[in-house]
Amino acid sequence: MKNIVLVNTEENWGGGEHWFYEVAVALQKDPRIAVWVMTHPEGRLSARLREANVGTVPCSVSLADLLNPSKQKKWRTFFESHHIECILFNTPTEAKVLGAAAYKAGVRRRILRRGSALPVRDSLPNKWLLKKYITHLLTNSYWTARLLQEESSCVAGLPVKVIHNGVPKARLWQSPTYREQPPLKIGSVGRLSPEKGHKDLLELAEYLIQDGMEVEVHIAGDGAERPELERLIRQKHLQQKVFLHGFVTQPALFMQEIDVLVHTARWEGFGFVLVEAMAQGRPVIAYDAGSTGEIVEHGKTGFIVPMGEVEQLAEAVRMLRSPARRHMMGIAAIERVRQCFLWENKLEEILHYLLFE
């Protein structure tokens, strides 16, 4: 029996919390493993894990807890009494604060999972504490792994394992359909914030309309930039061409209603939305940002264009006007997901990594 602790103390729910939930449930079902998850007591992750009968340990952390002897003793005692052999952290703060207790308790493997597209800050506390308390890094893209090695000296040199994210096999669209009549429906999914580049989609719509194409742009997601996007849509007289749908609860169904996904994010740790679109047989056009090249096969499952080159985005869209070409690329996209990004396969990689590597 191997005793493992997962740590995710975020109160809100996002992609990282979903990943920890799925991994925890899988670990709990494995007879070779005993698992506990340290979570925020009021967080959605904690509630969902309790519903799945996964053991949780209430925990909220701040950097001040490094100097709290009562908390440090409580955590160290827990790790020692349960003979924890491996601990996986979600954030650098967790790695520093709980890593101190795990280090003193003799936990052999102390892993920081990094899914963010940003380097870990090279602050003095990070340089000292992370080097001391972390033994391994786990990332969801080779791009993020390189970023950490090249721009985060506080973790550079640590062994890195890359395991991409994935979608469940059941979510692959087995018989995708491709509309033959205009308008061509361009889709985008993501938080409405500047780094997602949604303003480029408005410029893209203008290029294509000027070119005489019948197009619609459908944007799913919400965020602080929504009022500015609404203003620009009115200013550019695009109310009948660009539609803001807000947060969508079933992204797969949204993907099935569009013809092509255009992704304008400035950086991505792992562009999960690209895999979701490909799983529904949708070609993807995306900027050459972060891990995009690890997901999209240029010219086969979609197109990758230089950052900020909206005219090249437009040219890629023009190349997908043909339903036959969209069909060919869409089928190739489903196959790429089947071969490279199935969650069931990724979960096996994760379990093997935590158990044996």
What does this structure look like?
This protein is of the alpha/beta class. The chain has 14 helices and 13 strands. It has a 7-stranded parallel sheet, with helices on both faces. The protein has a 6-stranded parallel sheet with strand order 10-9-8-11-12-13, sandwiched between helices. The protein is elongated, with a radius of gyration of 22 Å.
Quick structural overview:
The chain is α/β, with parallel strands linked by helices and 357 residues long.
Distance between the termini: 15 Å
User: How many β strands by DSSP?
Assistant: 13
Succession of helices and strands: EHEHEHEHEHEHEEHEHEHEHEHEHHH
- Main-sheet strand order equals 3-2-1-4-5-6-7
Count of separate DSSP helical elements:
14
SSE-based structural type? alpha/beta
Helical content (DSSP H or I, runs of 4+): 40-55%
Spatial shape: elongated
- Could you name the ranges where pLDDT drops below 50 across 5 or more consecutive residues? none
Major sheet: 7 strands, parallel
**In angstroms, what is the radius of gyration?**
22 Å
Rounded average pLDDT: 95
Percent of residues in beta strands: 15-25%
